[in-house]
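Quick one, tokens below:
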């Protein structure tokens, strides 16, 4: 009972400090002729538990490259979402990591001209828009059942948050990606991959996905 009362006291103290800080912020900014709407400040103290949960969109999904010459369409739910921190992906994406959404191959199609590009490696082929050179998707030899689509190409890219991060040995030290699973390099076995696919399928259902992702047979 005492611990619950102490927790309430601490919570109330923190809320008081937050409200006081925002009051001083608004007051201080007015001195410089800047008006901060109350609604904006209220967003800053929204508790984590009050945030709306992410709702997974239902297929089909559409997207396009930077110039719009290549358009993609996917008719099935994703199999897995990934963030990769390897040095190649830093350069591919011109960012701290790349984002991938894995889909069943037979659900993926595109229109427009694509070309092979990037760093060629055995068993891995990358495809780019022939016009703007936007990175579109990858194919993995021996894994014809899936296609690795660059998440940023999708119109609703923000809905496909990463479930797994890879190559954390090469991660930028200031990067923090909220994921369910982290690997210092890559999953080492098909069992590891299947575990991730199963875990993502369960997460997808809990997050509002109605179509169960296709699983690897």
């Amino acid at each position: 009972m005492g611990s619950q009362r102490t927790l309430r006291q601490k919570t109330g103290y923190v809320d008081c400090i937050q409200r006081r800080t925002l009051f001083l912020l608004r007051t201080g900014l007015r001195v410089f002729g800047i008006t901060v709407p109350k609604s904006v400040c209220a967003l800053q103290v929204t508790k984590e538990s009050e945030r709306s949960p992410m709702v997974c969109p239902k297929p089909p999904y559409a997207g396009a490259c930077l110039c719009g010459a290549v358009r993609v369409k996917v008719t099935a739910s994703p199999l897995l979402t990934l963030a990769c921190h390897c040095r190649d992906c830093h350069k591919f994406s011109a960012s701290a990591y790349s984002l991938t959404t894995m889909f069943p191959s037979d659900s993926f199609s595109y229109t427009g001209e694509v070309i092979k590009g990037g760093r060629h490696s055995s068993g891995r082929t990358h495809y780019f828009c022939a016009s703007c050179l936007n990175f579109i998707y990858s194919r993995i030899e021996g894994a014809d059942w899936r296609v690795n689509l660059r998440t940023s190409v999708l119109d609703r890219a923000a809905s496909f948050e990463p479930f797994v991060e890879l190559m954390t040995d090469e991660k930028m030290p200031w990067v923090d990606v909220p994921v369910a699973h982290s690997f210092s390099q890559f999953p080492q076995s098909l069992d590891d991959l299947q575990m991730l696919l199963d875990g993502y399928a369960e997460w997808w259902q809990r997050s509002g996905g109605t179509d169960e992702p296709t699983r690897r047979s």
